[in-house]
């Protein structure tokens, strides 16, 4: 409620907003538009596969924006840039890491993803940020760089034996099923 939001703002409490997880579990809708309006540090999260089947931050940004826009008249002014901000620098600020990550600038780690906007599912595209938030998912990522090192390119994790990972996950699933 308004008192809670006042307290969050006054104490400079940081928020991890996980709208899909909250919706799936029936925990209600966080006031994303109010967080932004009150300059509360808010970043987007996916929670985990335990409460969100896909940990796709672009999908989370889209869901956060659409859910917020279905609320108050004031929240209808939110746009794709607001959602992208929460997914990037907003998240870094919520974690207290804005001096290290969250944007491409001198002094920050080189953390970024290259996303293709060439898919037919992304057409028509009038605005790259709008296309990114409303029409794109993690499946459109072609390159991921973390701290200046390529970690993912063209559908493959570069430093992970994916076949061994799948086998190990299956071993764990079988072991948990036996409990």
Protein architecture, described:
Helix 4 packs across helix 7. The protein has helices at about 1-10, 20-25, 30-35, 55-70, 80-85, 90-95, 130-135, 160-175; strands at about 15, 40-45, 110-115, 140-145, 150-155, 155. The longest helix has 16 residues, at about 160-175. Strands 3-4-5-6 form a four-stranded antiparallel sheet, with no helix packed on it. Helices cover about 40% and strands about 15% of the residues. It has about 180 residues and is α+β, with helices and mostly antiparallel strands.
List keywords for this structure.
alpha+beta, 4-stranded antiparallel sheet, 8 helices, 179 residues
Detail the topology: elements first, then pairings.
Layout: H1 2-10, E1 15-17, H2 19-25, H3 32-37, E2 42-44, H4 57-69, H5 80-87, H6 89-94, E3 112-115, H7 128-135, E4 141-146, E5 149-153, E6 156-157, H8 162-177
Parallel strand pairs: 1-2
Antiparallel strand pairs: 3-4, 4-5, 5-6
């Amino acid at each position: 409620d308004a008192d809670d939001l006042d307290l969050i703002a006054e104490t400079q409490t940081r928020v991890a907003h996980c709208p899909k997880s909250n919706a799936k579990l029936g925990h209600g809708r966080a006031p994303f538009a109010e967080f932004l309006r009150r300059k509360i540090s808010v970043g987007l999260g996916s929670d985990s596969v335990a409460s969100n089947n896909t940990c796709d931050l672009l999908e989370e940004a889209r869901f956060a924006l659409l859910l917020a826009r279905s609320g108050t008249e004031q929240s209808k002014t939110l746009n794709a840039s607001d959602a992208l901000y929460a997914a990037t620098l907003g998240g870094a600020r919520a974690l207290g890491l804005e001096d290290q990550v969250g944007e491409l600038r001198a002094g920050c780690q080189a953390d970024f993803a290259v996303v293709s906007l060439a898919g037919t599912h992304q057409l028509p595209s009038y605005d790259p940020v709008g296309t990114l938030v409303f029409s794109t998912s993690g499946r459109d990522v072609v390159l991921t760089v973390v701290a200046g090192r390529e970690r993912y390119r063209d559908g493959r994790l570069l430093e992970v034996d994916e076949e061994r990972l799948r086998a190990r996950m299956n071993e764990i699933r079988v072991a948990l099923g036996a409990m």
